[in-house]
Design brief:
Elements (H helix, E strand, L loop, with lengths): L4 E2 L1 H12 L11 H11 L2 E2 L9 H10 L5 H8 L3 E5 L3 E5 L3 H9 L10 H6 L1 H14 L22 H11 L3 E7 L2 E6 H4 L5 H4 L3 H16 L1 E2 L1 H4 L10 H11 L2 E6 L3 E6 L15 E3 L10 H8 L20 E6 L2 E11 L4 E9 L7 H17 L4 E4 L4 H7 L2 E3 L1
Parallel strand pairs: 1-8, 13-14
Antiparallel strand pairs: 2-4, 3-4, 5-6, 7-9, 8-9, 10-11, 11-12, 12-13, 14-15
Length: 402
């Protein structure tokens, strides 16, 4: 039988439906909505840059609208979430702990995230640290002083910081909370006292199948080449797995304009009867699942994007922490923003629109409302725009009160 034919616009809308970004929230966010949004994405990537709200909070805001940022820490402290290496460092629903446990049991495969030689060299000190936590309770890296004479620097970690990070990667310690966004570590046995590797752990093959299944559902519509990146599964049997899903009806094959053969998860199949319409406008984090795979963002949205905060300023094309602008199913622009917290001002250093974007009244109204809500949620009282396309400058001038 011929494959269902989808336009690129329809494919984008299906993907955004899977990600919770198709339509604006219908009501004021509840705590349960935050957990549901995270489960819908499967993973919430963590990053510490905070020129605006830190990435995990921003990813949730894009889906939920205004909500108390403390909810994320409360969910972590309550054991609803845990932290580990998935796409990168991520908040993950606790029910998916078995999916990542095999990585903890074989941390030597994690690359720079685990240093086996360090653990061997410092084994006595590490044993003493574990004993200290057992006797005195959770710790932060900030609880320990750097050795005298150590030079400052981004990667100039003091020994105890390295101990803690290695123990975290090995699953001996878990993050039970964050204080000023710094990890608070406790023993795994205290966080998950009922866990037994012999009874509960999945082998890698089974865990990979579950992670691929999560990826397919969270992507909604996907090419096989996109599937393994979600959890960084380098050697996953993607083609074989997708064939099995086709036989079981978990996915169906489709033909998408300019993309070729793609697969649609069964949760979205009802949309084939009546295709959804995108009505949401949102400012996205650079670490949002919609754009964290830069190649997928280019293929699906025609959005050529990379994060330039680690690029020398003179070589940046756009800016330090540039945020994609989602408008009604398409990525139509980007903006370089900074929250001036003391002054309660959201500063937009520059706005860029993608080629061919038509600046209609609906577009400007939608984007102004999205920026206003974005600023207000972060405590801003006004928004200033330093530089913007001329067709926007004629409408917005230099900013507005929020």
């Amino acid at each position: 039988m011929p494959l269902p034919q989808l336009s690129l616009k329809q494919a984008r809308h299906l993907h955004l439906a899977a990600q919770g970004l198709l339509r604006p929230p219908a009501r004021k966010a509840q705590f349960a909505d935050m957990l549901a949004a995270l489960r819908q994405m499967s993973l919430l990537q963590i990053d510490t840059i905070h020129v605006v709200a830190r990435s995990p909070y921003l990813v949730l805001f894009s889906r939920l609208g205004a909500y108390p940022q403390r909810w994320l820490e409360e969910a972590l402290s309550a054991g609803e979430l845990f932290e580990y290496w998935a796409h990168e460092a991520c908040f993950i629903p606790t029910e998916d702990y078995p999916l990542l446990r095999h990585r903890m049991l074989n941390p030597q495969h994690l690359g720079w995230k685990y240093n086996e030689a360090w653990m061997h060299t410092w084994q006595a000190e590490i044993a003493a640290l574990l004993r200290h936590i057992e006797l005195h309770g959770p710790v932060r890296s900030a609880d320990f002083k750097a050795p005298a004479g150590q030079k400052p620097g981004w990667w100039a970690w003091k020994p105890h910081k390295r101990h803690l990070e290695n123990l975290f990667s090995a699953g001996e310690l878990m993050v039970i909370g964050r204080h000023n966004f710094q990890r608070v570590y406790d023993l795994r046995q205290r966080v998950l006292p009922e866990w037994d590797d012999a009874l509960h752990a999945l082998d890698e093959k089974e865990a990979v199948q579950h992670m691929l299944r999560n990826s397919a559902q969270s992507l909604g519509l996907f090419r096989t080449a996109w599937l393994s990146d979600y959890y960084r599964l380098k050697r996953a049997p993607v083609e074989e797995t997708v064939l099995g899903w086709l036989e079981s009806g978990e996915v169906i094959a489709t033909e998408v304009e300019s993309l070729g053969k793609c697969y649609l998860h069964r949760s979205l199949m009802p949309y084939l009867e009546k295709m959804p319409t995108a009505t949401h406008t949102a400012i996205l984090s650079p670490f949002d699942p919609v754009v964290w795979d830069r190649k997928r963002a280019l293929e699906l949205f025609g959005f050529d994007y990379r994060l330039e905060c680690y690029t020398p300023e003179a070589k940046r094309q756009y800016g330090y922490f540039v945020l994609p602008l989602l408008h009604r199913g398409a990525l139509k622009g980007r903006l370089d923003a900074k929250m001036q917290r003391k002054e309660k001002v959201l500063q937009i250093r520059q706005i860029w629109l993608e080629p061919g974007v038509r600046v209609s009244q609906r577009f400007t109204d939608d984007v102004q409302l999205a920026l206003t809500r974005f600023a207000r949620w972060q405590g801003a009282e006004s928004l200033v725009i330093d530089k913007q396309p001329v067709e926007l400058a004629e409408i917005w001038l230099n900013g507005w009160r929020v």
